């Protein structure tokens, strides 16, 4: 599989999807080019997908939110006869390295989570399943709010991974069956071990789909569902005299060298000897007004910086797996970050669609960062701007180190490092569990049966929130529990070097498990179950000989030979 991947896409370059917008309704039509795989060696038959198909889908989901905010109903359907989607391409999975498979499933999961998240801003997805939906094809439908299945005697929905491939459904299917659709556990067990799937009225009775329709009535049923969604959610933003609806998401500019990536607001430096990537986010030069946000569109700092960070995370995941520690830095004016946050929150509270969407993109990007299997270390130094939205970068990290004072011989104009909490840290940017990162940090989000003591961490959380708006020096931040350590200039380099080298000496697998377990502390959600528990099981099963060994189900699928399983349960 290629390591240098581009995550750029636009409707004019799509090979596998077609996006049509008609007023308050949009249609995403899947028509996979069999010869359009991102790597040689496999054919994308039966509307099966690889990473390239999902890169386009991810772009379409984001583009609908920013370029077509008036859309209320998004219909996902297929252009192929009696085939909605056959799921992930088995040939692609069979030849891919384990790390690629893991990151592929993770990217797909995050795209499906973005589809579900779109409903919160009034864009509701409807799966018009006009043919068989198998495996990942049905998981795509499960991410939609409503599922309409063709009642033609042959179209089925299925999750055949266990009986056919010896693996689990890789993009949240099992969790969504029970947690989202409320399917009885025994019926979910039967369904997930029945390769041929379920069709017709039984699919409705088991809550696998919402509605069925005969082929002659299918298009009318789709329109009816779209009309119901539009009426329920009301009209979207309308064009004003000087403010057209929607903004164009222009291509990102990324200058790549052997050891660096350069965006407008983000710099990534790669140190292969130390096995680190240093991500430095530049804050806004000056605050922008709400009118200025609309005028600048995708060039505005809050949108541009979020898009660049999102792109860099995906590039590094696939392209630099050996760089196991990411050092997170910021550079700029904390006051400008907080003023930008204030503009976004005030705009969103007043119903401004763009302010709300930009905040939502930061939320999803921070979650993508947390779901990344890398050690995340925030370095808070003089000249940084860890405030508000950018403080969330530090709170998402596994550890935070803050310089006490300034660097000897550094620029005279730099003040000692400071960090500042703000309203963005109190709720608008929740982690995948739905809790704030501050609450998770202090254990205040726990308290479920068998969890932490009631009220644990609430005093520390209250103290941190009470300090909102105040620039905190290293000693104050350490006292409030907002940073891990605050070395001075004499100890800084040695401390950070020790942390990095220690991390590089640990088992990468053990670190991935450790970090994911601690990052997803607190209450569970569908998203944390999928990105945490389900992904861990899937990754383990992918490595087992029963799936990927020479006689495993994944290797023997399509050869006419049955898998030869090791029958010991472990």
Rg over C-alpha atoms, rounded to the nearest angstrom: 24 Å
The CATH architecture designation of the largest domain is: Alpha-Beta Complex
Instruction: Please state how the strands of the largest beta sheet are arranged side by side.
Output: 11-12-13-14-15-16-18
Kindly state the percentage of residues in helix: 40-55%
What's the CATH C level of the largest domain? Alpha Beta
**Termini separation:** 31 Å
User: What is the helix tally?
Assistant: 22
Number of domains: 2
Q: Per CATH, what is the topology of the largest domain?
A: 2-enoyl-CoA Hydratase, Chain A, domain 1
Helix and strand composition category: alpha/beta
The CATH H-level homologous superfamily of the largest domain = 2-enoyl-CoA Hydratase, Chain A, domain 1
Count of DSSP strands: 19
Low-confidence stretches: 239-243
Major sheet attributes:
7 strands, mixed
How big a fraction of the residues is strand? Answer: 5-15%
Give the mean pLDDT. Answer: 93
Question: What's the overall geometry?
Answer: globular
């Amino acid at each position: 599989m290629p390591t240098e991947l581009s995550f750029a896409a636009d409707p004019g370059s799509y090979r596998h999807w077609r996006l049509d917008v008609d007023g308050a309704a949009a249609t995403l039509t899947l028509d996979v080019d069999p010869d359009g795989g991102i790597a040689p060696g496999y054919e994308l038959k039966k509307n099966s997908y690889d990473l390239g198909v999902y890169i386009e889908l991810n772009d379409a989901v984001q583009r609908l939110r920013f370029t077509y905010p008036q859309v209320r109903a998004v219909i996902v359907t297929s252009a192929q006869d009696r085939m909605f989607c056959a799921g992930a391409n088995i040939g692609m999975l069979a030849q891919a390295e384990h790390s690629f498979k893991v990151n592929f499933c993770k990217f797909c999961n995050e795209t499906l989570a973005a589809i579900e998240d779109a409903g919160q801003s009034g864009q509701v997805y409807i799966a018009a399943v006009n043919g068989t939906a198998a495996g990942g094809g049905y998981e795509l439908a499960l991410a939609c709010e409503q599922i309409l299945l063709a009642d033609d005697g042959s179209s089925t929905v299925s999750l055949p991974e266990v009986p056919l491939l010896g693996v689990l459904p890789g993009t949240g299917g099992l969790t969504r069956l029970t947690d989202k659709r409320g399917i009885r556990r025994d019926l979910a067990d039967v369904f997930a071990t029945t390769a041929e799937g379920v069709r017709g009225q039984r699919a409705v009775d088991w809550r696998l789909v919402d509605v069925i329709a005969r082929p002659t009535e299918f298009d009318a049923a789709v329109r009816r569902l779209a009309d119901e969604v539009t009426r329920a959610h009301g009209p979207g933003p309308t064009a004003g005299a000087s403010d057209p609806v929607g903004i164009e998401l222009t291509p990102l500019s990324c200058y790549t060298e052997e050891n660096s990536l350069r965006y407008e607001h983000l710099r990534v430096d790669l140190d292969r000897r130390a096995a680190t990537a240093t991500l430095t986010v530049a804050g806004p030069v000056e605050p922008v007004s709400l009118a200025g946000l609309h005028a600048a569109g995708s060039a505005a700092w809050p949108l541009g910086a979020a898009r660049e960070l999102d792109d860099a995370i995906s590039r590094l995941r696939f392209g630099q797996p050996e760089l196991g520690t990411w050092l997170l830095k910021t550079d700029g004016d904390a006051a400008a970050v907080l003023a930008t946050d204030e503009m976004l929150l005030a705009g969103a509270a007043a119903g401004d669609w763009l302010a709300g969407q930009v905040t939502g993109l930061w939320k999803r990007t921070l979650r993508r960062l947390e779901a990344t299997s890398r050690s995340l270390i925030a370095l808070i130094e003089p000249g940084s701007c860890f405030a508000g939205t950018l403080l969330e970068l530090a709170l998402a990290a596994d550890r935070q180190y803050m310089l006490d004072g300034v660097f000897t011989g550094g620029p005279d104009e730099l003040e000692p490092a400071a960090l500042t909490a703000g309203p963005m840290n109190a709720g608008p940017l929740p982690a995948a569990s739905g809790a704030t990162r501050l609450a998770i940090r202090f254990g205040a989000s726990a308290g479920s049966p068998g969890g932490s003591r009631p009220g644990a961490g609430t005093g520390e959380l209250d103290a941190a929130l009470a300090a909102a708006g105040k620039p905190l020096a290293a000693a104050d931040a350490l006292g409030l529990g907002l940073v891990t350590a605050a070395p001075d200039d004499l100890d800084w380099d040695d401390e950070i070097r020790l942390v990095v080298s220690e991390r590089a000496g640990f088992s990468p697998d053990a670190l991935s498990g450790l970090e994911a377990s601690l990052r997803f502390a607190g209450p569970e959600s569908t998203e944390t179950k999928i990105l945490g528990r389900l992904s861990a099981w899937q990754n383990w099963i992918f490595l087992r000989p029963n799936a990927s060994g020479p006689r495993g189900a994944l290797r023997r699928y399509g050869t006419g030979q049955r898998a030869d399983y090791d029958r010991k349960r472990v």
